[in-house]
Amino acid sequence: QVQLVESGGGLVQAGGSLRLSCTASGRTFSSIGSSAAMGWFRQAPGKEREFVAAIRWSSAFTYYGDSVKGRFAISIDNAKNTMYLQMSSLKPEDTAIYYCAVRRSGGYSDNDAAYDYWGKGTQVTVSS
């Protein structure tokens, strides 16, 4: 089992930045598997959960949803067993609960049903 805890959410003005963290316990990212992937999703009120970004642990390849390309950056610190989402140039439409997730095998996916472990989420609110 892998337990995930997100942190770093909050209230920020449009144009500002935030860094979200997702710390794993129970297993290290490196022990999950060479084809494991870690991702961030978000869900705004009344909307479906949306893919934000993902990273392959073994190769560090990164993938982004169209709405965040060029503004968000995903990364992993294996020594800390922590994944990050650096968010810049934030817009009011980025307001949502942000969730981190781990997929045990199969590599990257933008489908939330493909992920096996989920955190409880952290709220990000961007004011105009």
Task: Give a quick rundown of the structure.
The chain has about 130 residues and is mainly beta.
Write the layout of secondary structure elements.
Elements: E1 3-7, E2 10-13, E3 18-25, H1 29-32, E4 37-43, E5 50-56, E6 62-64, E7 72-77, E8 82-87, E9 96-103, E10 117-118, E11 122-127
Parallel strand pairs: 2-11
Antiparallel strand pairs: 1-3, 3-8, 4-5, 4-9, 5-6, 7-8, 9-10, 9-11
Radius of gyration: 14 Å
Number of strands: 11
**Which regions have little confidence, pLDDT < 50, spanning 5+ residues?**
none
Counting copies of identical and different chains, the oligomeric state is: single chain
**What portion of residues belong to β-strands?**
over 45%
Mean pLDDT: 94
Please provide the ordered H/E string of secondary-structure elements.
Answer: EEEHEEEEEEEE
Main sheet record: 7 strands, mixed
Percent helix, as a range, is: under 10%
Q: From the helix content, strand content and strand pairing, which structural class follows?
A: mainly beta
Q: Give the end-to-end Cα distance, rounded to a whole number of Å.
A: 40 Å
Query: What best-fitting shape do the alpha-carbon axes yield?
Result: globular
Number of helices: 1
